[in-house]
Each structure stands twice: as structure tokens, then as C-alpha cells.
Amino acid sequence: MLKKHLTLVLFSSIFCYYTAAQNKKKASAAPVANSQELNTAKGIIQFLYASYDFGNINEKGGRVSHTFKFVNTGYAPVKINDVITSCGCTQTNWISKPVSPNDTGYVNVVFDPDGRQGKLDKVITVMSDGSPKSQVLAIKGTVYPSKFNFANTYKYQYGNLAVITNILNFPAVKSTKYDSTEIGFYNMSNKQIYIYRIDAPNNILITKPTDFMPPNTGMQLKVKYYANRPIEYGPIKQEIRIHTNDDSIPTKVFYVSANVIQDFSDLSKSERKKAPKAVFNKTEIDLGNHSLFSTPVAKFTITNKGKQDLIIHKVVRTCNCLTPSLSQMIIPKGKTATLDVTYSLANMAGPDTKTIKLITNDPNQPEVTLTVKINVTE
């Protein structure tokens, strides 16, 4: 029994000695500076990377900037004493306080491209009380003229955004369908532009691929135009407002011009036979000679020779000098309505021609143009 006890004691002693030796070995392997190293220790600035490429830079797109970050991998705090640039076009700012070991700091570089077309290759020298005392950073890129590479496509400029057009035209929108187009943007600035809101009428649907436009990139907004409800036939003018963070003209206004027509594509042959039929006594009237400031009247008659009510959806004038007056907008079968067009003769002389357009529910002539001619004498 005593022998067994002595064996256990001996085994325990050996195990404890082995464990202590291993711990001592591990402790001696840890990267701890000795007293002499601490007395001579310096901070070490370790940049994550020493070069940055801006890519394409618009000469008139404003200043570009980049922040170089670093870690102090040394045993003592490190302080940046100065940052020297190779060109007055480059400005810098940096962390002013000492950076402790394992902490991070930064050097921010700002470049002004105005008047500096061509290749960009600038160096920045960082001076510190660490080791080494100086390090070199670099910025690269290409500065191109403000109209370079997209002027043939993007014709108009709204602040820092170039656009293909600021007018959207939908010449024949069927009442049961939609028409579509795109709004093309190009970010000419050297900063990211954010589209945070689009104001559009309920009948216009706009989708964007993303909220952000990086510098020197394009974006296409898809636009779908539907007929209003209740349907308004004929020419319609509307607006789209696109709100951005562009510090030059933040709100971009686009003008929408549409012409909504009734869709007769689903009518059968029998339905077409029963449809209304508009018959005009004349489609052109020459009022002859009239003196300035007089108000002659052209008289048209419209007869419905179909089997259903003829509806005049809208009467569209091409000039404020014309004043149309229709006796009734709904003409029963076999009945006739009159359209009086008063011509106000002011600020004009000599021969003149103006038109009136009628939007109807006659499937064979949904749009009818009436012409008025006149010769204005003194």
C-alpha cells in the first residue's frame, strides 16, 4: 500500500514539473519587448495600401478625395509630423494626435482636377516620428474634358447630371395599353449622386436600377406611360420631378407630352358595323379677307351616320387665336352638331392657316383635323 502511494506522489510531481516547463516555454515565445527594446521602441506606420487609382476623373466634376488608413504595428505611439505633396493641386489632412500601438490613423488626400487634363500620377510623402521616418503614397487616374466620351449621347446638362433629353414624347398611347421609354443619365461629377425621390403622376410608372450613381457612370430609368383614369383622350402635358443630392440643380424636371387614343383593336366586325360614324360637311374652310382685330367665324357641321352615339372626347386647338364652340359633345345616331370656330385677328397680317383637331369614338377616324384659312388685311 505504501509503495502504491509513493508511486502516485512521484507521478504527480513529474506531471506538475512537465506542465510548468511547457507554460514557461509558451510564455518565452510571446512577442513581448524587453526593457532595452522598450527604451528604444518606436511606432511603425503600416498603411493598408500605398497607392489609389481614381480611374476616370471629370475635369469639371469637382474635387476628388481618398483616405489612406494605417495601423501602428510598433511598440510605442507614433505621430505624423508632416505630409508633403508633389503638386499644389493636391491637399492633405491627417490625424493630429499620436496613434497608440495597434490603433489606426489616416491621411486624407484631396485632388483638384480643374485644368489638369491627362494622366494623374502624384506622390505624397508622410513624415512621422516612427520607423521609418518617411513613407510615400501615390494617387493615380486620368483627367478628361467635361464633354469627353458621352457628348454625342447626352445632349443636355442638369447640374452635374447629363441627360439624353429633358422631354419625353408618347405620340400614340392606346387607352387599354401603355407606351414606354427611358431617361438616360450620366454622372459628370466626381462624387456619388443619390436619387432619393421621384415625383410623377399616377399614370406614369418609373423604375430605377439603383438609388446611387457612382462618379462618371450612366444610369437608365425605365418609364411606362398609361392612360389616366378616368381616361383623358388627346394631347396631354405632364411633368416628372427627380430629386437628387446634386448640389447644382438638385431637382431635375422632365416634360411629358402624350397623345391618348381610344383602342379599337378588340372590336369585332359586327361591332364595327354598329359603331358611330362621323361625317363632316367640310374639313377645310377659307374665310377669305378680313380686317385686323375682327372676329370671323368658321362653321362646321358633324353628322352621326352610325348606329351608336358619336362622342367627341376632346376639341384641340393649335392656337389661342381660335375659340371652338361645339353645340354638343354626344351626338345621337342620325343627329347633327355644329362646331363654330371663332378666329381672333390680332397681331397678324396676310394669309394664315390654323387647325382644330377632334378626338372621337369613331373607330375609322378617331382623330379628325379641321383647317381654317384666312387672309388678314389692314
Oligomer: single chain
Give the helix tally: 3
CATH superfamily of the largest domain: Immunoglobulins
How would you sum up the global shape?
Answer: elongated
What does this structure look like?
The chain has helices at residues 2-29, 35-40, 269-273, and strands at residues 45-47, 51-58, 64-72, 80-85, 90-94, 104-111, 118-128, 134-144, 156-158, 161-163, 167-174, 178-187, 193-199, 204-207, 212-213, 218-226, 234-244, 251-261, 278-280, 284-291, 297-304, 310-317, 322-326, 330-331, 336-343, 350-360, 367-377. The protein has 378 residues and is mainly beta. The protein has 3 domains: 45-144, Immunoglobulins (Immunoglobulin-like), CATH 2.60.40; 156-261, Immunoglobulins (Immunoglobulin-like, Sandwich); 274-377, Immunoglobulins (Immunoglobulin-like, Sandwich), CATH 2.60.40. The protein is elongated, with a radius of gyration of 40 Å. The termini are far apart. The model is unreliable at 1-32 (pLDDT under 50).
